[in-house]
Design a protein that fits this description.
Blueprint (H helix, E strand, L loop, with lengths): L19 H4 L3 H12 L6 H15 L2 H13 L4 H5 L12 H14 L10 H10 L2 H24 L13
């Protein structure tokens, strides 16, 4: 396996030359179902995008980071909120509910040195801000982005291209 130097330019072509959705057309049904579940209205769409942006940052996916930054901009979110997602713990731009959601995605994606990923304390903090349906929706929003993390990191679609058409 070759390594790229930090000064090398990254090509603007997907790593996987064939669109995974064309290779496995059943993906469309799974994807549509996930979007329907996550878009049920129990959690504000900007909160879901904040969580999914943070997931993209954590795993180092430019595709997901650009995608969810774009969603947040289209939703009218301020640049301060968008750019401070990486440092949300010390940022004044997030509500308690958003902080709980961001803490959940970090707990799921970053293994602690000891103990459970999602502690009872963290779950209780999130439950203070979200009812059962909303907490379940957040759980699936994190699962949805995790579903697409593999696509983003393995197939490496081109950042900035339409979510439905990154291979063209």
């Amino acid at each position: 396996m070759s390594t790229r130097t930090i000064t090398a330019e990254v090509p603007m072509v997907p790593r996987m030359t064939e669109d995974p959705a064309r290779l496995v057309p059943e993906l469309a049904d799974v994807s549509a179902a996930l979007f329907k579940v996550v878009g049920n209205g129990s959690v504000p769409r900007p909160t879901i995008s904040l969580v999914q942006l943070r997931a993209g940052q954590i795993v180092g996916s430019t595709y997901l980071t650009v995608l969810h930054t774009g969603f947040l901009r289209k939703a009218g979110q301020s640049e301060e909120r968008i750019t401070s997602v990486a440092s949300w713990q010390t940022s004044p731009y997030f509500t308690g509910a958003e902080r709980a959601a961001l803490a959940l995605v970090e707990a799921v994606l970053q293994a602690p040195s000891h103990g459970e990923r999602v502690s009872d304390e963290l779950y209780a903090q999130a439950a203070e801000h979200y009812d059962a349906k909303a907490l379940t929706t957040l759980m699936f929003a994190i699962g949805q982005v995790n579903f697409f993390i593999a696509v983003a990191l393995i197939a490496k679609p081109v950042p900035g291209r339409s979510f439905t058409d990154p291979w063209n």
